[in-house]
Amino acid sequence: MSAVYDCSKPDSRADGLHAAASAVRSSRLVVLPTDTVYGIGADAFDAGAVRSLLQAKHRGPDMPVGVLVGSWSTVDGLVLGVPPQARTLIEAFWPGDVSLVLPHAPSLNWNLGTTRGTVMLRMPLHPVAIELLREVGPMAVSSANVSGRPPAATAQDALDQLGESVSVYLDGGPSGEPVPSTIIDLTGSEPVLLREGAVTAAAVSEVLGVEVGPGQ
């Protein structure tokens, strides 16, 4: 039986965060609010839980799952190295709506889908999400919807689509306009814009001091 917790009420929020942390540690799925849309999440290092996440979304491993972190410093343990451009973007936009694709550390035991040795990282600007991430560590998180259907802008939207496949729903209120994060690929010699979302390509280019656009 899924449980829904109203995070606008202090007691319910505390209970919900405790239940969500327990669920993540037990290989179960949770839905959490972020600063873009609602996300469905699991322990990033639990391959079985990540498979369950993809199954809940009716999605295959060819569309890998990104990872949310609760602090800047977490990134250092997840990637092969943090290039200066990544540091610059983290300082400018995190927590916020920029996702960074970097080569992941080869020692990590995780399976996020067909990533070709990379990982997409973001620190969300939402207090409930950050509190959960700081409690359980990095989480594999995708938009809380069945593939092909609109991303969930409320916890009820997520519940209507994902139902009992998710153990805990953290209701943080409406997410606002369902605008996704901007994705920047930093695996090559030059930054490449994979998706323009809430942060414009012009804003990213201004921060980096170079023109950032789609790859060839």
Automatic annotation (TrEMBL):
Record's protein name: L-threonylcarbamoyladenylate synthase
The entry's keywords: ATP-binding, Cytoplasm, Nucleotide-binding, Nucleotidyltransferase, Transferase, tRNA processing
ATP-binding in keyword set: yes
Catalytic activity of the protein: L-threonine + hydrogencarbonate + ATP = L-threonylcarbamoyladenylate + diphosphate + H2O
EC annotation from Swiss-Prot or TrEMBL: 2.7.7.87
Transmembrane segments: none
Keyword Transmembrane helix: no
EC class name: transferase
GO annotation, cellular component aspect: cytoplasm
GO process annotations (BP): regulation of translational fidelity; tRNA processing
Subcellular location: Cytoplasm
